Structure formats: C-alpha cells, structure tokens
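Board notes (copied after class):
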Amino acid sequence: MAVATVNLRAVTSWVGIARLFAVVLSCVAFSLVASTGEYRSPYGTWCMFTWCFCFTVTLVVLMLELLELYPVLPISWDDFTSAFSMLAALMVFTTSVVYPSTSIGSPCGSHCAQKAVATTASCLCFLAYALEVGLTRAKPGDISSFLSTVPGLLKVFEVYVACLIFSLLDSYASKAGLQWCVAVYSICFIVTFLIIIFTIGRCLAYLPCPLEKMLVGYNALAVVMYITATILWPLYSFKDTKRPNPCNSECAWNKALGVTFLTIFNLIAYLVDLVYSTRMVFIRTPS
C-alpha cells in the first residue's frame, strides 16, 4: 500500500511554479467570466470548459506530485504530464483568441473590466503552460519519455488541430473530394490519438515493430494524405462559390476557409514530425 509523503519540489521547482501560476490564472479567468454571467454561447461555453478543465487537471497533477502518489498509477507519468501541458497550452491559446473576439465588442458593452482582466489572465496562463512545455521537453537524443520529445509534442498538436477541423466541418457529403478529405482527417486523427494513448498507457510493447520505425512510415503516409487534402479541400469548397455578404463566424464559407488553413497547419506539423522521426531512426546522437 502506497504511503503519501510530501515532496516540496513539486511546488518549488520551475515546473511546479509554472503549474501553480497556471492554476491561479485559470481560476482567475473562469471566476471573472462566471461573475459576468455572459458565457452561455457555444464559444463562451468552450472557453469556460477550457479554463475549468485545465485548472482541475493541473491541480490534480500538483497534488499527486506533492504527495508522491503518481507512481501507483498504471500510466507513464512523464508522458501524461508532457501531453497534458502541450494540450493545455493549445487549448488556452485558442481560448485567449476566441474569448475576446467573441465576447468583447467594439465598443465594449457590459462587464468590460472583468472581460479584459479574464483575457489577460488567460494569455498569461498560456505562457505558464508554454513555459512548462519548454521546461519538460526532452533533450536531443533522449527518448525515454516519447511525448516530451518534439515528435511526441507534435502528435498532441496534430490531434488538437484535427479536433478543430472537425468542429468546423459543415456540408461535405455531396462531394466525393470533400468526403476524401474528411476521411484523411479522421484516419490520421484516430491513428495519432492511439499512438498517444498507447504511449501513456505503456502499451508500446504490444506493437509488432519499434515505435520509431513505425512513426517514419506512418508520418510519410500522413504527409501524402494531407497533401491531397490540402489541394482537394479548397478546390471543392470554393469552386464556383463566392463569399456571401454578410458572412459571420457561423458562415459555411468562413468555416471552409478555417478548415483550409488548419489543414495546411497539420500538413506542416506532419512534415516536421517526419523529419524529426527520421532523424530519431537514422541519425543517432553520439553518447
């Protein structure tokens, strides 16, 4: 039976301090927005969920490390914390952009001060998570914690961007080219997500081949598939279609444009991922 001991380095190290700042700043952000009562739109709900989710998980991580209870968990703790800090940084960054653009009008209506401070706290919270990612990132040549390496962090980025793409998908069933693009997004999302889950769950030993070699083949295939999606999505989405006026955030044309840019972002991510994965396999750092 595990006995809890207090490890003060969990809150006094640079990583611990970054997590403490993230907890406080996310708490400030959702508390201020909750006090306004103006968060019931889809975008406001997403922002509140992000701040509350990051606050809760980071607090749990701090408590588990402070009491040194995390070794009893049947997961790779370093991989989990690395993946979560990267995910939290991406989520809070998105929220820091979405919240002011959807909730703070020009001129500002009611509760301007609370919304402005909440936005500032959210931006600082993103910096805290980004600092944690930088502090916990594996050194070149160190692959003991895969999700703290550049390819591992890119896996989290690729999954998150795919989720953003799914949230913007509107009408695609009528065109085969768009259906192929959705298939590309879905296949790459599922495989990349499974890689993350298998890594955190310490299930990589069940794979039929070494992870590094499998990643090279998968990333090469993902790059080819995303190249086709990068070409076909805008071709079938904007062919013989003009941007309607007005066209707000719920406009199908704007959503299709967002998917186009996110597809390009993920293509770049998979390209960089392929380069780093290839280096991990074929270029060994001398010990």
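Comment from the instructor: The mean pLDDT is 88. The two ends are 39 Å apart (CA to CA).
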